[in-house]
Amino acid sequence: MGQPGTSWRDIWAVVSDAAHTMGTPLAASIDPRAEWPFETHLLADIADSLRFLGWAKTKDGQKNRNRPKPIPRPGMHGLRSDIAAMPLDELKQFLARPRIETPAARGE
């Protein structure tokens, strides 16, 4: 960045990639769930599954009590309670907005 040979397309490519790569600060600012890289989410899922399987074989598991709590993840507060529905009129306005074609979509 800041070099004479850097084009706007180069900057767009870097920012676009960072926005879609989990674990980058830009992606986390867009979606808090992207604060962790994908692999860390997988490891948390594996740990939760193993703890659940171990619990299921205990007397508590057979009586469905003292269930282990999942590992807290960024952007996830309970069972999707952090997601709110968009009003229908706002959704229609959003979908009616004109779309722009990116250089990648044009095949450049």
Kindly describe this structure.
The protein has 108 residues and is mainly α. It has a domain at 8-82. 51% of the residues lie in helices and 0% in strands. The radius of gyration is 21 Å and the shape is elongated.
Concise synopsis of the structure shown:
This protein has 108 residues and is mainly alpha-helical. It is built from six helices and no strands. The longest helix has 19 residues, at 38-56.
What are its keywords?
single chain; 108 residues; mainly alpha; 6 helices
If you average the pLDDT, what whole number results? Answer: 82
Q: Biggest sheet, open or closed, and with what strands and sense? A: none
Which stretches of 5+ consecutive residues score pLDDT under 50? none
Query: Whole-number radius of gyration?
Result: 21 Å
Helix and strand element order: HHHHHH
In terms of DSSP E residues, the strand content is: under 5%
Count of beta strands: 0
Q: By helix and strand content, what is the structural category? A: mainly alpha
- Percentage of helical residues? 40-55%
Number of helices: 6
* Spatial gap, N to C terminus: 21 Å
Task: Give the SSE layout.
Layout: H1 8-20, H2 25-30, H3 38-56, H4 59-62, H5 88-96, H6 103-106
